[in-house]
Amino acid sequence: MKNFLKTLLAGIVLSASGLAAAQTQTLLNASYDVAREFYKDYNAAFVAHYKKTTGKDVKIDQAHGGSSAQARAVADGLDADVVTMNTTTDIEFLADRGVVAKDWARRFPDNAAPTTSTMLFLVRNGNPKGIKDWDDLTKPGLQVVVINPKTGGNGRYAYLAALGYMKKNGAADAQAQDFLKKMYKNVVVLARGGRDATTAFLQRNTGDVLITFESEVESINKEFGAGKVDVVYPSISIVAENPVAVVERTVAKKGTAELAKAYLQYLYSDEGQDIAARHSIRPRSPAILKKYAGTFKPIKLFTVQELFGSLSEAQKVHFNDGGQFDKIYTVK
Question: pTM above 0.85?
Answer without folding.
Answer: no
